[in-house]
Amino acid sequence: MASDENQLAGGAFFGRRRGRPLRQHQEQSYEAGQKAYWLDLSTAPPSRLTTLFPADVQEVRLEIGFGGGEHLLHRAIENPSIGYIGVEPFINGMAKVMAALALRPLNNVRLYGEDGVNVLDWLPTASLAGIDLFYPDPWPKKKHWKRRFVSQTNLARFHRVLVPGGMFRFASDIEHYVNWTLLECADHGGFEWLADNADDWRKPYEGWPGTRYEAKALREGRVPAYLRFRRST
């Protein structure tokens, strides 16, 4: 369920919840995956967030809106000592990730299929090493800008749950949303933009696997920006 704040703002930060009907094997993977990977927010978070995972992880990172899960799964496989919480309200995207996990189970992943704000409000203070927000819905019409996930309210949430020095990474192919994010982070004052020259935001992050959405944007002539912010105060 969307938070009260989202309802007052005119709706949740995400758009549609479902695309094409799931195939039988996707439905089965989705149901099995909920039992194995679902993040239960009905209980209090553990004092040590790393204990959410069967794996012996050293830190925890959050990806909000993982789409088809290309980046989330790549990072989880690449870094078994890091715990990853993935949030995706779009059921088809969640089903795709759960189908992949059925073929290759990972014990350093937890998933949540509702509004990312719910997870942010549930997490303990200073519990995350990083937050990733890649290609979020840009809500291009001005009347919908209040539904953009990057806002002063959500940046305050990020600031609370990130450890000092923790990273917030934002990628988008929508220039206005990139500029919006730079201004919002500057206005907040608690995030340092890590860029000395244009290559620092034009080049993908180290080890970046790419995503299907990014590939589509490039085909259509839109140039992505890859921003990095450090929690500074």
Description:
By secondary structure, the protein is α/β, with parallel strands linked by helices. The chain has one domain: Vaccinia Virus protein VP39 (Rossmann fold). Helix content is 36%, strand content 19%. It has nine helices and seven strands; from the N terminus they run ααβαβαβαβαβαβααβ. It has a seven-stranded mixed β-sheet with strand order 3-2-1-4-5-7-6, sandwiched between helices. Helix 3 links the parallel strand 1 and strand 2. Helix 2 packs across helix 4. The longest helix is centred in the N-terminal third of the chain and has 14 residues. The protein starts with a helix and ends with a strand. The N terminus is likely disordered. Catalyzes the formation of N(7)-methylguanine at position 46 (m7G46) in tRNA.
**CATH C-level class:** Alpha Beta
Q: What order do the strands of the largest sheet run in, or round the barrel if closed?
A: 3-2-1-4-5-7-6
Low-confidence stretches are 1-17
**What number is the mean pLDDT?**
88
Keywords: Methyltransferase, S-adenosyl-L-methionine, Transferase, tRNA processing
Family: Belongs to the class I-like SAM-binding methyltransferase superfamily. TrmB family.
Catalytic activity: guanosine(46) in tRNA + S-adenosyl-L-methionine = N(7)-methylguanosine(46) in tRNA + S-adenosyl-L-homocysteine
EC number: 2.1.1.33
Comma- or semicolon-separated keywords:
233 residues, disordered N terminus, 36% helix, 7 strands, 9 helices, Rossmann fold, seven-stranded mixed beta sheet, globular, alpha/beta
